[in-house]
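Weekly sync, protein design subgroup
Attendees: M.S., D.O., the rotation student, P.L. (late)

Item 1: inverse folding check
M.S. brought a backbone from last month's batch and wanted to see whether the design step gives back something sensible before we order anything. D.O. pointed out we never logged the input encoding, so this time it goes straight into the notes. Structure tokens as presented (227 positions):
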């Protein structure tokens, strides 16, 4: 939420809707309609809303200034097609996840080209990239660890990957979901833990690593953060 009284939600109908949580009305107070495809991810920090879309663009909304800034992320590809007439269609890799850094200066963006990028909000330039995981077909979420020092992501090979933020070097590769898709990770900075969710339908005990693992029921695994 942009503040404690405004709720926000991205949608498959390409919009982002904002509601006044103090109001009895179910109608949104504002609808953002700039995306050309489904809004796959959304993150709010203070008065700013960052969205990621299947159209391959990250959009930053400054709610105080009433401004919107858009950046194309990832590869631009060309699809040739032949019907009655020959043509081509240019498109970007869909965005699967966005998260702002705590200082508000950068955004972590995951895309369907198996690359996670740290984007400078002031100029749209890539500060660092994170590779090694697989993300080509599913919406997989990534996140920042405590102090924004670590990047964590799931992968289509069922593993959890951790990178050092500034260097982009892989710190850990953790087997978590029986080689099935690890679709999401989330960080709890208060408890200094991460949680991962997968499509395996059950929790599994990973092989021993230099981390403390706590196994939760279902298909969510909670594990201690790197020290």
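Designed sequence read out in the meeting:
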């Amino acid at each position: 939420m942009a503040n404690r009284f405004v709720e926000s939600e991205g949608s498959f109908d390409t919009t982002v809707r904002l509601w006044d949580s103090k109001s009895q009305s179910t109608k949104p107070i504002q609808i953002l309609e700039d995306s050309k495809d489904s809004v796959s991810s959304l993150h709010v920090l203070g008065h700013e809303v960052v969205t990621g879309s299947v159209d391959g663009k990250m959009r930053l909304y400054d709610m105080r200034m009433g401004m919107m800034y858009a950046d194309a992320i990832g590869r631009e590809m060309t699809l040739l097609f032949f019907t009655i007439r020959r043509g081509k269609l240019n498109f970007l890799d869909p965005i699967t996840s966005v998260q702002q850094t705590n200082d508000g200066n950068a955004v972590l963006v995951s895309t369907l080209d198996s690359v996670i990028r740290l984007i400078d909000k002031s100029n749209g330039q890539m500060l660092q990239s994170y590779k090694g995981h697989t993300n080509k077909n599913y919406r997989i979420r990534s996140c920042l660890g405590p102090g924004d020092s670590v990047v964590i992501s799931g992968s289509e090979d069922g593993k959890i990957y951790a990178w050092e933020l500034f260097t982009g070097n892989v710190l850990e590769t953790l087997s978590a979901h029986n080689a099935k898709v690890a679709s999401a990770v989330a960080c709890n900075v208060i408890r200094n833990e991460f949680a991962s969710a997968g499509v395996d339908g059950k929790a599994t005990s990973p092989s021993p690593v230099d981390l403390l693992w706590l196994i939760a029921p279902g298909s969510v695994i909670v594990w201690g953060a790197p020290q």
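Discussion: The first strand starts at residue 6 and ends at 10. Residues 119 and 126 are 5 Å apart (CA to CA).
Action: P.L. to compare against the previous round before Friday.
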